[in-house]
Fold this sequence. Notes:
Layout: H1 7-27, H2 33-55, E1 60-63, E2 77-85, H3 87-91, E3 98-105, E4 108-116, E5 121-124, E6 138-142, H4 148-157, E7 160-164, H5 167-175, E8 181-185, H6 190-202, E9 206-208, E10 226-230, H7 235-249
Parallel strand pairs: 1-2, 6-7, 6-8
Antiparallel strand pairs: 2-3, 3-4, 4-5, 8-10, 9-10
Helix pairs in contact: 1-2, 4-7, 5-6
Amino acid sequence: MSANVNDDILTLRLAQGTGEILKGVRNVGLLRGRVLGDAGDALSQEWIARVLQQHRPDDAVLSEEAADNRDRLDNRRVWIIDPLDGTREFAGGRQDWAVHIALIEDGTPVHAAVGLPDLGQVFHTGEAKAVTGPMSNKIVVSRTRPPEVGKFVAEKLGRELVHMGSAGAKAMHVLLGDADAYIHAGGQYEWDSAAPVGVCKSAGLHVSRLDGSEPEYNQVDTFMPDMLFCRPEIADDILAAVAEYKEKHGDF
């Protein structure tokens, strides 16, 4: 392990550097559409892998853009990354895409960073701040796959439903106070939520599965179908509404 860069700084710099690479690839304007998205995925993955190999050669890595090496299950330190969360949004010129970097120890995110490069911001566990102030009365959900349970909760609690790409972008908008909650159901993987969970928990937000349980990482099955990020003062109301929805429909 490198003595020159601690875990917190390494996490932050990985998110910053990846964001700069991705903006550079897109802003020169030589690639468009799916080809641009594929290039962004590949180049950012390659850079992150090289940095981790140099600075943390003994740690395991789980990434959306690389084959899963099950040796990670025997390592208590695992980097869970999504170099480009929201590839469709990135390639389409939208701002709601993100960079996810998380260091997991014994199943829990201990250092995490979520970069929103087009907004010039990186949120990380070293400086995440608790959300305060008035409620926005908004709940954010997937732009392409809005879950029915999200619609149900919004109607039940009298909130406006807002659609957005990238799990990281949605979670950070709760952190910023632009939304009171982010509700997801219908399928994600560990790399979609590990970094947002680490950042939001360190900021004092409520983070859980939709049944209220704690998310656990570096599992054999990396599928994580549902998540809730919200202001802590409305967590009980949302979980109660979610439970009511499940009782009526049998699932989320």
